[in-house]
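Hi,

I'm pasting everything inline rather than attaching a file, because the server keeps stripping attachments. The sequence lines come first, and each chain or strand is labelled.
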Amino acid sequence: MNHQEDRKGMGPIGWLFTLIGAVLIGYLVYYNIAHLHDSHGGHGEAHAPPLWGLGVLPFVALLGSIAILPLLPATHHWWESNLNRLIIALICAVLALVYYFLAEGPEVLLPKLNHAVPAEYIPFIVLLFSLYVISGGINLKGDLAARPLTNTAFLAIGAAIASFIGTTGASMLLIRPLLQTNSERKHVVHTVVFFIFLVSNIGGTLLPIGDPPLFLGYLRGVAFFWTFNLWLQWAICCVILLVMYYILDTIAYRREGVFDLQKDDTQKQPLRLRGWINILWLAGIVGCVATVNHESKLWGTDWTPFPFLREILMFALVGLSLITTPKGVREDNGFNYAAILEVAALFIGIFIAMQVPIDVLRVYGPDLGLTAPWHFFWATGTLSSVLDNAPTYVVFFETAHSFEPQPIPTTIIREDLLIGISLGAVFMGAMTYIGNGPNFMVKAIAEQSGVRMPSFFGFVFKYSIPFLVPVFIVITIIFLRGGGTPADAAPDAMMDHAEPHTTQLETPQSVDDHDH
Amino acid sequence: MLKRILVALSGTPFTPSAVARAVELAQVHDASITGVTIVDTERIGDVGPVPIGGGAAAHSLAEHRLNITREHVEQEIANFEKACSNAGVPFAVFKEDGDAFDKLLELWRYHDITIIGLRGLFEYGVVHNPDDQVIRLIKHGVRPIIAVSQEHKPIKRVLIAYNGNAESAMAIKRFAQYQLWPDLELKLVCFDFPEEKSTPLLADATTYLRAHGGDPTAESLPGYPEEGLLKHARSWDADLVVMGATSRGKILKLFKGTTALEALMHAGIPLFLSQ
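And the predicted assembly:
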């Protein structure tokens, strides 16, 4: 089935899947609420399930399918259908559950599903959906004179707002006016590449809504505003890259033809923002995520919100966006739901199949030999370059968790490791077109606007390695050199260094200190 | 004598020059031209690895690439038909889908010579091709080939590189037999040979060319052809270089550098190649 068929409708199988999915998710939501005070899958005594080598296979198979099936001529078109993606994701999820059933008995299934779906998948996908739909209702149009300073300002603004509207939202908002501004110039490739570096990735460092892995950290107990602690790393990285870009673009500007520059100077159009009301709805999303949590009191009140209120409010904001956005804005943005449906289809499988590797990492994490922040930065980053950075973040988050004393207190994590993991997942998503969703979207829009973008390896060898890797080395030297002896992983050492080296995080998933 | 000329309508900056050269030769030889466009849909639709959430963008990009390619193809065909009609040259157009090498090899069987650009093959502004497409074509069996530069100049001075091996001998033979252009000034050169070897080598080749109506001068030059041939082609102001086709793999290039042929291609000197 291709996209044209997708547009015609899902067909009876699609509707059957949707119905079964809705019933299952509805039941899980009910289970989640009914077992609010029970421990989640991540609590309690950590143990690796028996024969876990078999149990991680569905997760590996799913990631492998995502990487390989689009490239094989035999499966290339088949994989274009979100229904087919969902089928593969669900098969892997079911295989992981069958493994749990056989290895640990039926009683673990619902807790595992509860942890994977209502506790993580639903908030994750609702947030992404909300940001995607609302930011898709903002359209910026215009054609400024494409001078190096103007382009640099575009990138700087994008890097500044990406944390607040998400890297995808910021990318989709700014890439078209940036390309329009540069449409008269011949040397534009470096501008798009640095846009991917700064706006589609690094810019999203400062808030959990900036980049999906950080939101998963938030769901796992990292305080909403903790990511603001990364402002210095974010700022240094952005400034270095902006300076690099300014120099490159100044050189490129001098190489432009006189005729092109004259044309650029005459064909100007002031910037015009449409759908600005959505900025208000985006602020609402930030407010929802920051303040509405069913396991803590609403800020400034004695009232504890009921479960899924945050998600209900976000849906309401999406509804407001759809109602209030002027007609034609989303069409001008080339907006459709295909991308978010793809994310939704695949991540249901990822979140469920990921439970086994998480269980394993909780036990064997220390054996991986990762102890220092820079280990986590580079390991998380390297994998985030070629895999989706959200599950990669979770994998290394759980590895870092395994260093904690047993039984695992989910509210404590070594802050230096969390910094390494967060920076690695967000920064190094910029290394390739596949490190983060918006990277490829930006490349596709640029190519459709006539910019001849480098190939996958061209991007890596001509731009990422020469420009990004040195910056990451600088970040490593300045911020991530500390810690890093195996002893740090020992419970006693953890306790000794608990104050300086660990951070007390929010407790949305914790029940021990719940004050209900 | 040429009777059927195959020209690749590749959608590169070299294509107008390739068409002009084909028309020129068709007029000289009273030949017909076949213009061919080849769209490799699999290759054009291959947008590389795609991240989660990028599937729709990938699909849209692949469609865009295919549309752009089809537009370029139509434009190339229109330009080709106009050039042939204006010159009063009989022509045919083949619109093919599939692998460029396989399709060209099929068509080459019924044509005397193939004309393509020095770089880029059926790109239509969409795909990137490595620079060794001409050499790969020859290795696939499509030969002889005239590889043209972007600039279309009359061919008056032809430099013939000869080192005595089978490839360069075949190139000389084909070039002499075809007698592509009248009244050519020919020069035979060989590199890095001691005099006792170069003198008989050049003498034999000169005799052969004279037997086919040419009157070449000959010179044995010091140094390696990798450096010397391009320099000499420039200093002698050659309009075309005749030579056998050789190339090196990437690893070998790293240690030994590019071949003389690759250096000429990179410098934009038109070539007559065979193997």
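Chain B touches chain A at residues 42, 45-61, 64-65, 125, 128 (CB under 8 Å).

If the labels don't parse on your end, tell me and I'll reformat.
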